[in-house]
Amino acid sequence: MSQGFLPICKKDMEERGWEQLDFVYISGDAYVDHPSFGPAVITRLLEDYGYKVGIIAQPDWKDKNSITVLGEPRLAFLVSAGNMDSMVNHYSVSKRRRSTDAYTPGGVMGKRPDYAVTVYGNLIRQVYKKTPIILGGIEASLRRLAHYDYWSNKLKRSVLLDSGADIISYGMGEHSIIEIAEALDSGLSIQDITYIPGTVCKVKSLDSVYEPTILPSYEQLKEDKLNYARSFYVQYCNTDPFSGKCLVEPYSDHLYVVQNPPAKPLSQDEMDLVYGLPYMRTYHPSYEKDGGVPAIKEIKFSLISNRGCFGGCSFCALTFHQGRIVQTRSHESLLKEANEMVKDKDFKGYIHDVGGPTANFRAPSCEKQLKYGVCKEKQCLFPKPCKNMKVDHRDYVALLRKLRKIPGVKKVFIRSGIRFDYVMADKDDTFLKELCQYHISGQLKVAPEHVSDAVLEKMGKPENSVYKGFVKRYKKMNERLGMDQYLVPYLMSSHPGSTLKEAVELAEHLRDLGYMPEQVQDFYPTPSTISTCMYYTGVDPRNMKPVYVPKNPHEKAMQRALIQYRDPKNYDLVMEALRKSGRMDLVGFDQKCLIKPRKIKSDMSGVKRKQNCKNSKNVKNNRGGNNKRRKSR
Questions:
Q1: For the whole model, what pTM was predicted?
Q2: Which residue ranges make up the annotated binding site?
Q3: Per DSSP, what are the bridge partners of residue 492?
């Protein structure tokens, strides 16, 4: 049974009467005990199984004593970078250092190192030579095998090797961490724990590895990017817990990194258990003096109703982390959490979100998935909705109706992503009607990402005609309801496959919409996505065909500027982009033009100024010549 926050110092341990912890969890985030935070879920689950767990949040990685404050754990250290990849947390896509960190008290930047799990793992090894180290969380999960690292522009080894750790619990981790804990508790050596689904380990020989699929070696991957593309696609086709194979990446004749098949998805009862654990639902009180942890504001009054996503976007890492099989919580579990929310003194009557990676997915996409797994080389929604896909919003609608009726709840928002193509596949308008009527406030954010079918194909997104159809349907529904609400499209520039031609096409679409986005997302190559593989290798790993990749910073700036072509600061970049793409027909005074030519008057005045300067110089030169002549006389 929980006794408040888990121990963060020896005094906390003494108050519980504990001399030694079973596990010490080291996190790159501040300590926030809320189910939206991975470290909270794993530590509370271990606690529920009877293990003694403490947390060292954001240790000083320059001081090895910072990881000794709770002593040596009996079973293992658990290490995570936190809720975000440390490099994404620290750097923008242009590799500029960000100024704030929402997962740190007061939003202060710099409280965790770059490549956090690697640094923390090595820090532990300096002090505790043989204590097991288990990596987890998004950073380790997506770096579990050799991967392209955008920030160093290099192919890196498995994080398991560079961190000095013993095993990775990849994916969401609930099943695998309990199996690892029980194996260690039974006296099994960490070196012998090589068989658990959802884990990656290292071995000296393959004698004990069952039916391995051998990937190209690390040396072969470095020699030829096409080897990496082929290897990546094998990994991509083995992310399903029912059909996935054991993958082996050789590093030498005596060192192999072994990825076991993914752990099975959680059942609804298991999901309810995980989200019903006794979380404090806020940050540790020691952070109050610093102004708290900013990240809590977005999620404190939000409900996680599902995990997993069968959307299959190329630029998303969810396939490698949460998987494609949707897992959901029961209505009872969500209503219980919502009723507890209402009692919070800071609750103002608004539930900020009810969703997950994709809000309107409340079941696996088809019946066969929980027996046979997802299709290896087919997507549920792309390029067209699969005929076997079950399209049904009724359960989600029923849940939202129940939440709206809770006394003290004024409005229930949906802020997670809505898959508009899934809405379009549903012939019943009930969800769209209630979405517009009750669950948005003036605008709905959706993610068409682009309008060029050539780019959308590389993104794994539906054709632009599907989005156009949704726009019409959404507008018609709002008119029917007598509501004046808008769509805010999320758009991405510089994705593999996008040339200046496609970027101009996107600008023309925005012109026709009469809309200019305030923010533009440049494609960000993060580990373990199809798009990042394209970026690094120049080929689409699904068919090994060449793909155009915009990498030049100036071209990327032009593509970004085209999306915000109305901004005067972007004029020169837009003009250059139109000239280079042979689209000077879009420069002029017609309504179809993106920008106007520079005013002739100002151009002439510029010429006059230059001429005046030239004349002035001639006068000075003549004066100088006259003076010289006077002196010579």
A1: 0.91
A2: 309, 313, 316
A3: 521
